[in-house]
Write a structure and sequence with these properties.
Pfam families: Response_reg. This protein has 132 residues and is an alpha/beta fold. The protein is built from five helices and five strands; from the N terminus they run βαβαβαβαβα.
């Protein structure tokens, strides 16, 4: 994890949503978006290169979906936190995403403060688990 702003990657197949996510993530100044991808496989490659602190990941994407990508993302950047940001109901998907390695689940439609809090909380939990 970095000492400066948290470095975040966005992975969603809708470019306009990624733009809104970028503005929302960077709003408080303690996070910066270091990359974006519209497909999960491209996202795996991106996080392998960037080694970000966290990722906001959609589940429904072309090619491999976000659920299939979670273990690949975890392998590509083991220290990174994975926050799923999806339109699927948390009741239906949160447990499954955590089983395959996600740290948090936020439903699309949540306000960006909730999204930022999920990223911050996941990073803090990961640091505490490492004893940092």
């Amino acid at each position: 994890m970095t000492a400066g702003p948290l470095r975040i990657v966005l992975c969603d197949d809708v470019p306009e949503l990624r733009t809104l996510m970028r503005f929302g993530v960077e709003e408080d100044g303690d996070m910066t978006v270091v990359g974006e991808a519209g497909e999960a496989q491209a996202c795996v490659e991106l996080v392998g290169r960037e080694q970000p602190d966290g990722i906001l990941l959609d589940l429904s994407m072309p090619g491999i979906d976000g659920l299939q990508a979670i273990p690949l993302l975890r392998a590509a950047a083991p220290a990174m936190v994975i926050v799923v940001f999806s339109g699927f109901s948390a009741d239906r998907m949160e447990g499954l995403t955590r089983e395959v390695g996600a740290d948090r689940y936020v439903e699309k439609g949540a306000d960006m403060e909730t999204v930022r809090a999920a990223l911050r909380g996941a990073v803090a939990d990961r640091a505490a688990a490492r004893g940092a």
